[in-house]
């Protein structure tokens, strides 16, 4: 069974892959009485990368965390792979998060674990692989993120890694269980421009190689165009502009044009 077949194991009807993998309708979320998301509607198609743009404090990460059930909406629905996340119990949500992996902004690596232990952690926790198979899978994953050429990398601790290496290890760990989709929270934040570009190119290559459905939240428009197929600009809790690269570049929206200037 293909790990990236969107109908695999979920009883989906033939042709279900033509439906969006993620559909958000009327999503509202507030914290402490302060509205953050004010009615979000968006779709993410199978095998594409949607980039959610917006300035700091606009709620991009809050939106992202609704897509794998880390947060639940106050109003509206989030449908992932045909499942309404609000109707899933904790076991079902845990299963969904194996299918929809997440790369957190700072990587969220375990400080006391080596690279090998970090990457192998989900395999030890959620698979029946023998240790020899896990070793082989970790080597495969490190090769995917171009860390296989670093001497002794498996034994390094996160504190011994550069910022770019931490991002690569975090991506490798997220891919360990062969998710259908990956959510990236500010994947280039804190990286110098060259490293940020290399990480973005690698994200694009992995999306194409593995057929991943991806959602990337970022304010880094320059690299957004490296990874994205479609784009949505979040502003004051709503999607203000959306479309392909050509469509958003052609937009007459003033805020979108201000964002575009940062990529020049």
What is the helix content? Answer: 25-40%
Task: Give the radius of gyration.
Answer: 18 Å
CATH top level of the domain at 49-67 and 99-261? Answer: Alpha Beta
Structural class: alpha/beta
Strand order of the largest sheet: 6-7-8-3-9-10
3D shape: globular
Oligomeric status of the shown chains?
single chain
Return the average pLDDT rounded to an integer: 89
- Please outline the major beta sheet: 6 strands, mixed
The termini sit apart by 44 Å
- Residue runs with pLDDT of under 50 for 5 or more positions: 1-16
Identify the CATH architecture of the domain at 49-67 and 99-261. Answer: 3-Layer(aba) Sandwich
Report the CATH topology name of the domain at 49-67 and 99-261: Rossmann fold
Number of helices: 9
What is the β-strand count? 10
Question: Element order, helices and strands?
Answer: EEEHEEHEHHHEHEHEEHH
Report on the structure:
There is one protein chain. By secondary structure, the chain is α/β, with parallel strands linked by helices. It has a domain at 49-67 and 99-261: P-loop containing nucleotide triphosphate hydrolases (Rossmann fold), CATH 3.40.50.300. The protein contains nine helices and ten strands. It has a six-stranded mixed sheet with strand order 6-7-8-3-9-10, sandwiched between helices. Helix 3 packs parallel to helix 5. The longest helix has 18 residues, at 193-210. The radius of gyration is 18 Å and the shape is globular.
Write out key terms for the chains shown:
Rossmann fold, 9 helices, alpha/beta, disordered N terminus, six-stranded mixed beta sheet, four-stranded antiparallel beta sheet, 264 residues
């Amino acid at each position: 069974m293909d790990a990236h077949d969107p109908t695999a194991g979920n009883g989906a009807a033939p042709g279900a892959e033509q439906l969006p993998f993620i559909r958000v309708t009327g999503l509202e979320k507030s914290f402490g009485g302060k509205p953050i998301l004010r009615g979000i509607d968006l779709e993410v198609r199978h095998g594409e990368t949607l980039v959610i743009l917006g300035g700091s404090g606009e709620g991009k990460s809050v939106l992202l965390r609704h897509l794998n059930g880390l947060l639940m909406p106050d109003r509206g629905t989030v449908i992932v792979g045909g499942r309404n996340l609000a109707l899933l119990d904790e076991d079902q949500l845990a299963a969904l998060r194996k299918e929809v992996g997440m790369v957190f902004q700072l990587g969220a690596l375990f400080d006391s674990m080596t690279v090998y232990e970090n990457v192998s952690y989900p395999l030890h926790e959620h698979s029946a692989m023998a240790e020899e198979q896990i070793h082989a899978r970790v080597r495969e994953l490190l090769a995917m993120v171009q860390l296989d050429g670093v001497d002794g990398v498996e034994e390094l601790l996160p504190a011994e890694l550069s910022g770019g290496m931490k991002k690569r290890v975090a991506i490798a760990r997220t891919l360990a269980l062969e998710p259908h989709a990956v959510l990236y929270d500010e994947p280039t934040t804190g990286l110098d421009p060259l490293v940020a570009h290399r990480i973005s190119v690698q994200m694009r290559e992995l999306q194409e190689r593995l057929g991943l459905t991806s959602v990337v939240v970022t304010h880094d428009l320059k690299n957004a165009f490296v990874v994205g197929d479609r784009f949505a600009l979040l502003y004051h809790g709503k999607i203000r502009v959306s479309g392909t690269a050509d469509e958003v570049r052609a937009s007459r929206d003033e805020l979108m044009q201000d964002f575009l200037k940062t990529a020049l």
